[in-house]
């Protein structure tokens, strides 16, 4: 019964990502010195962004190997700059370090931001934790707040400046086997409607 309940929960999360008709707002590349570390894309249902809009999806495609625990620390450092409660950020760090895998080049980490909650999808796997509205807003603010340390990336991320865009960039295409009821960790279909989610 536990596995059935978990699977129903995962399907509920995933159906939200599928039902949203994702269109790319924009994307930007994060570099450190001469190194392209990762690209981040912003998606909405209509291909544009307004403040307090939901749902949104952020897609991070890694270009360099990054340990999941270290990436969680990076995210929390950005959140701490928003003057959030230390109790909140400590709890969020612990949870992200529990659920984040290590990332290899071409891996994709999606964060789906809904009105009152958010969750991560690593490649084709929904990570087993639902984050609350406070975390969700803090994650959005990492990228879109006027106080963000990524403010120089915002014109491209918001589609106000166009960089070179590869329409396949944020699609993950693993080898996937058909669903098997006996499989305790079934694979979920990737790409969130790949024909329509990358306009822009």
From TrEMBL:
Annotated stretches, region: Disordered: 158-200
Compositional bias of kind Polar residues: 165-174
Domain Chalcone isomerase: 36-159
Keywords: Signal
Pfam families in UniProt: Chalcone_3 (PF16036)
InterPro entries: Chalcone_isomerase (IPR016087)
Highest taxon listed in the record's lineage: Bacteria
Signal peptide, first to last residue: 1-20
UniProt protein name: Chalcone isomerase domain-containing protein
């Amino acid at each position: 019964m536990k596995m059935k309940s978990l699977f129903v929960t995962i399907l509920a999360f995933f159906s939200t990502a599928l039902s949203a008709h994702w269109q790319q707002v924009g994307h930007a590349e994060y570099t450190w010195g001469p190194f392209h570390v990762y690209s981040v894309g912003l998606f909405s249902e209509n291909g544009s962004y307004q403040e307090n809009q939901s749902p949104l999806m952020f897609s991070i495609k890694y270009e360099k190997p990054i340990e999941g625990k270290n990436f969680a620390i990076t995210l929390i450092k950005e959140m701490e700059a928003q003057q959030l409660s230390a109790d909140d950020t400590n709890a969020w760090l612990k949870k992200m370090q529990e659920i984040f895998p290590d990332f290899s080049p071409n891996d994709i980490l999606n964060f789906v931001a809904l009105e009152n909650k958010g969750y991560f999808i690593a490649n084709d796997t929904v990570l087993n934790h639902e984050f609350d509205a406070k975390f969700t807003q803090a994650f959005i603010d990492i990228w879109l707040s006027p106080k963000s340390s990524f403010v120089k990336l915002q014109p491209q991320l918001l589609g106000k400046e166009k960089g070179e865009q590869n329409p396949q960039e944020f699609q993950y295409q693993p080898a996937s086997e058909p669903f098997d009821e006996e499989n305790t960790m079934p694979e979920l279909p990737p790409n969130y409607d790949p024909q329509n989610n990358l306009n822009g």
